[in-house]
Amino acid sequence: MQKLLIKGKKELIGNIIISGSKNATLPILAASILANNVKLSNVPLVKDIFTMLDLLKFIGLKVKIKKNKKIIQLNCNEKNINTLAPYKLVKTMRAGVLVLGPLLTKFKKAKVSLPGGCAIGTRPVDLHLFALKKLGAKIKIKDGYIIAEAKKGLLGANIKFPSISVGATENALLAAVGAKGQTILSNCAIEPEILDLILFLKKLGFNIKIFGRKIYVIGKNSIKKKINHKIIFDRIEAGTYLILANLIGKKIKIQKIDPKILKYEINTLKKMGAKITSAKNSIFVLENKGLKKISIVTKPYPGFPTDLQAQLMVLMTQAKGISKIKENIFENRFMHVPELKRMGANIKITNKTAIIYGPTKLTGAEVMATDLRASVSLVMAGLIADNRTIINRIYHLDRGYEFLESKLRKCDAIIRRI
Q1: What average pLDDT is seen over the chain?
Q2: Between 42 and 80, where is the model more confident?
Q3: Identified catalytic residue from 76, 118, 188, 411
Q4: Is 118 a known active-site residue?
Q5: Whole-prediction pTM
Q6: Among 14, 47, 165, 189, which residue's beta carbon has the most beta carbons within 10 A?
Q7: Is the bond into 338 cis (omega within 30 degrees of 0)?
Q8: What CATH number has the domain spanning 22-230?
Q9: Domain 4-19+233-417 classified CATH 3.40.630.30?
């Protein structure tokens, strides 16, 4: 099993180019079931993307990958489609369930395995099924599979989500575009990745309008035969390196991003004492002269993202005073805390809140990654710790961070895979 070996206490200097968004690519790949011929560029070459492509191939799409150009071409031939998404291809990746909406609305049936993914919480598909039932689908759960049917097709409906859910918003949207009549989705997630999905669907010819957390969809069957789409930058990857730059950076430039999308994260770091300046497509971070405590609550976009909570916690260990993080999205997202404590962090958990005492000197240790974002927080801790850190189970990292080691080594980090 592969591990990461990190030698800490090396100041980072250089440029980091941000990859395309994993969380935008996955629903757009699922949406390609609705299309005839799609060309996607700026696709991140990470494990979750290849897993989704394997799923689409199983369903019957033709897939071509140009790795050197980060381009994927997909072709959906309606005569050879399999409306099954098996357990073996959905078990490791939450986004696999997103094929449910497009299969159901285009082919009037789908059998999709209940999904897997990170162990950060239950993340049930209840809201996905709630929306699809509102659109007229008949759904049952049997033997670990969602079996959905709409023999006469889906019908537009007014759907108000009981709580904000990214995945449920995406699945409902992917189903509603093929439903007859108008659908109004209320209390939706409005993450930039969802806006990118909407842009992709509008390029296909679908009629979609968004006002705040309300999305209007007028369903249709005819679409454009061929489209090109460039995936937006990965804001979570950008946020990760932004936090890391403030942790141990001397002078870091983060490129190929839109700073406006990271406004909340930038303001949060500035409150802690970060020296950040923004340009049109980049962010510059200079060495700070001391970090201040802060308290945050994770919230749906445009609030502070749960996917950056673990990374910010590492930064908080180096801030003066008592910082707090209240986790409001997932119920089991502090699994990195015991590993950080093994490295010397002083952290206490009370209900949904982590209390971080700083500044604290961290020391290298052998640790274990538990999920995607927790794993990168351990990399960050290793980069500021004394001595050597070994991180086990790094396959979590490979699910969502493209070329992590090479990007860090270009900024003088001492990190290698063993």
Answers
A1: 93
A2: 42
A3: 118
A4: yes
A5: 0.95
A6: 165
A7: no
A8: 3.65.10.10
A9: no
